[in-house]
Design goal:
By secondary structure, the protein is of the alpha+beta class. The protein contains four helices and five strands, in the order E-H-H-E-E-E-H-E-H. It is globular, with a radius of gyration of 16 Å. This is GNAT family N-acetyltransferase. It holds the Pfam family Acetyltransf_1.
Length: about 160
């Protein structure tokens, strides 16, 4: 399947919010508040300093011959400044591929797209992501893309729901 990658637009917010909710439920068994997710997606799309969303599209054939590009997956980037390296890590987050399009190269296309952008953007020192400790499938997938366990555990102190 040919996969094309584009920047998300405000009109994609509803779908991105739906996918974020599905990803949270699937990977962490968390039910998120739809209004909060939608507001967060809108805020991210509106402010590239906060987040940058990418949409993967794949083709589907309708009515026998009409080919239409459909959204099939997404990935969000955020930035983290590193004083140790005087540059930005790009964090890959909110990764989701529609279940009907998994194992068809969608995530790989998204990853290679942002990797290429990162390599040609001055000041970007690498890509990072976090993955659930028990999500062996995702871990194997990221390793196959060339990523390695960085040896960190993530701790947090949440404020709110």
């Amino acid at each position: 399947m040919q996969t094309d990658i584009r920047d998300a637009m405000p009109g994609d917010a509803d779908l991105l919010a739906q996918w974020a909710a599905a990803m949270a439920l699937e990977t962490e068994c968390k039910v998120l508040a739809p209004a909060t997710i939608l507001a967060g997606v809108h805020a991210g799309i509106a402010d590239p300093a906060r987040a940058r969303y990418f949409i993967a599209t794949g083709s589907a054939v309708f009515s026998g011959s009409e080919v239409v590009r459909l959204p099939v997956g997404t990935l969000m980037l955020t930035r983290e400044w590193s004083d140790w390296r005087n540059g930005d890590w790009w964090w890959i987050q909110s990764v989701y591929v529609d279940p009907g399009y998994r194992r068809r190269g969608v995530l790989s296309a998204l990853y290679r797209h942002v990797e290429k952008l990162a390599r040609k953007t001055e000041g970007v020192i690498g890509l990072r992501l976090y993955v659930e400790r028990d999500n062996a499938i995702a871990q194997r997938t990221y390793a196959a893309l060339g990523m390695a366990d960085a040896g960190y555990l993530i701790y947090e102190a949440g404020f709110g729901d």
